[in-house]
Each structure stands twice: as structure tokens, then as C-alpha cells.
Amino acid sequence: MIDLVRRWAGRWTTLVPAVAIVVLALTWGRSLAPLVVTIVALLLAGAVLAAVHHAEVVAHRVGEPFGSLVLAVAVTVIEVALIVSMMVSSSGDKSATLARDTVFAAVMITCNGIVGLTLLVSALRHRVAVFNAEGTGGALANVATLATLCLVLPTFTTSRPGPAFSPAQLAFAAVASLVLYGLFVLTQTVRHRDYFLPVTTEGEIVDEDSHAERPTMRTTMISLGLLLVALVSVVGLAKVESPVIERGVAAAGLPQAVVGVVIALLVLLPETLAAVHAAARDRVQTSLNLALGSAMASIGLTIPTIALASIWLSGPLVLGLGSTHMVLLALTVGVSTLTVVPGRATLLQSGVHLSIFAAFLFLAISP
Predict the structure, then answer these.
(1) Which CATH number goes with the domain that contains 141?
(2) CA 306 to chain CA centroid, nearest Å
(3) What are the φ and ψ backbone dihedral angles of 317, each rounded to 5 degrees?
(4) Which of 105, 115, 141, 234 has the most other CB atoms within 10 Å of its CB?
(5) Could you give the CA distance from residue 113 to residue 271 in angstroms, rounded to a whole number?
(6) How many CA atoms lie within 13 A of 191 on its CB side?
(7) Which of the listed ranges 31-45, 68-82, 128-142 does the model predict with the highest average pLDDT?
């Protein structure tokens, strides 16, 4: 019996993604009974934990900042696929604002929720959270520029009525997003990789992969494949659960936008858990790489994809934020700048970020 438990403990990260993808195929597009909904929810949680495990294996093999980049890009690519598929199957105002609502939710979750939790865990365990201000500052500047270019400017342009880009403006925003994201990846992984390596509380830059034996190439490739399977399962099962969430939201009398927030929270769970785990090991820079990298990828990959898909999609594409969301975005950028500049943060900074995140959630429920 003990051997069986140990064998399961060693293999669950392989079995759960496989079972989850099979259940996803069997439940996709179907109306589910309450028992099946519960099973799907449990598999969703298991797939999230499995994704975090395999992401850490891949990260340990390729090193930072490549490891956090792998998870951020993988989650975002699948998230983009989910957005496009939902836009194709939806219609009306829900389809028009889906990309904007999802991207903005991802920015607020990563820049306030994940960053706040990361700083909280690190400050509680190590008193002060230490990170590299050069790399984190560059990432934050990129996020602020992308968010303003793609989510704020459409509200003020005049070529088209409403908070929407004209086709030429949308094409420019898409190309600019790809260029900025590509430039960041080049800076992060090639030209200034040391700016994105973890920093200890003593201020020493550490290549954390040098302290333990790296996984073999075979193990890494298996984990990479299982990571993709787990992430597909997370996003797919989240969409399978979305009708239940929609009915619950409607029954509670909450705005439709709450559904997008809940789905974004589910999709970003693997990155959240990975970031918190890294912060607990005094690797705050890895956590910030995950958070800001995900925010950047969410904008830099989603907007170009939506711009391309809009050629075939019918109906308007609303990208411009409303006044409330613009205030939250401006507050997030300002507070994040003050957090990043010193390269050190305490419980106070974590509390500020989590307060902004709580305000975002509250205003989503009560706009």
C-alpha cells in the first residue's frame, strides 16, 4: 500500500494532465450534470498543479529568465486561442468587448494580484523582498506602454465612433505590440540576461540552476509536452466550466464582466502558484519575471492575433477602456513604478498592490 502511494505521488503529474485532456474532449460543448461539473473542477485544480510542476522542471533545465518566459508565453498563447474561439462563438456586445476585458483583467491580475502575493510571501519570510530594478523597471515600462497604446488610446481616437481603432490604427498597434514584445524578449534572454536573474536578500545575483543537478533533456522534453497538455486542459476545462459560472453570476445578479474575471483568474492560476513558490524560495525576480512577462505577453500576443482575426470576424472590436478602468490602470502604473525603483519592497508595498487588486475585483462586481 505504501509503495502504491509513493508510486502515485511520483506519477500524478503525468496522469492528471492525460486524464484532464480526455475529460475535456468528452465534455466539450456538452451540458453537464452537477456530478460531472464537480469532477471537471477537481481535474482543473489538478491540471493547474501539474502545470506548475512541469513548468518548474523546464525552468530548472533552461535556467532563468528562459524558464519564466516559457510558462508566460505558453499560457498566453493558449489564452489567445481561447479568446478567439469565444469571439467566434459569441455575438453582440459580449464578443465586441471580450478581448479588451480579458486583457485588462490579465494585466490587473498579474501586476497587482500576483505581484502583491509575491511581495507578501517574500516579505513575511525574508522581511524584505529584493529584486533587480533594472530588469523589472524595463519590463514595467513595456507593460505600461503596451497597455496605453492598445487599451487607452482607442478611447480617444476619432477615426471611428466609440472606443475602437480604425483598421489602419489597429494594424499599427498590432505591429508595435509585436516589435515591443520581441525587443523585450531579446533584452531579457540575450543582451541583458543578468538583469532578470534572481537576487538574494544579500543583493547577490544568483543563477539558481547551478545549485542542483539539472533534469536530463529527455525529462525536460517530457515535462514540456505535459506542460502544454496541462495548460490546454486548464484553459479548456475553464471554458467548459464557464456556463456554470455564467449561470451562477446571472443568478447572483452580477455584471457579465465578472465571468471574464473568473475565467482569467483560472487561466492564470499556474503562473500565480509558480510565482508564489519562487517568492517563498527568495527568488522574487523570478516571480516578477512571471507576472510582468505574462502581462506583456497577454497584450503583445493577443492584440496582433485579434487584429488578424478581425479580418474574418464580423461585428465591432472595442478595445478602449472606460474611465474607471483607466484610473485603475494609471494607479497601477504609478504604484508599480514606486515599488520597482528601489529594488526592495516590504509588506507595505504588497498591501498597496493587493488593495488595488481588491478594488478591481470589487468594481467588477459593483461597477
Answers:
(1) 1.20.1420.30
(2) 17
(3) -125, 105
(4) 115
(5) 11
(6) 7
(7) 128-142
Least Cα distance to 106 among 295, 256, 269 occurs for: 295
The grid coordinates listed for 122 are 517574500
d(CA 227, CA 39): 21
Residue found by looking up cell 511581495 in the block:
119
Cβ–Cβ under 8 Å, residues 151 and 179: no
Beta strands in 60-171 (DSSP E): 129-130
Structure pTM?
0.81
The rounded distance, in Å, linking the Cα atoms of 91 and 81 is: 17
For residue 129, the cross-strand partners are 345
Rounded to whole angstroms, the Cα distance separating 199 from 197 reads: 7
Give the domain range for residue 253: 68-210+241-365
The number of domains in the chain is 1
Helix, strand, coil share of the chain (percent; to 5) = 80, 0, 20
DSSP SS3 for 99 = helix
Which residues have a Cβ under 8 Å from the Cβ of 78 and sit 6 or more positions away? 231, 232, 234, 235, 267
The C-alpha torsion from 290 through 292 and 294 to 299, rounded to 10°, is: -170
Name the average pLDDT for the chain.
82
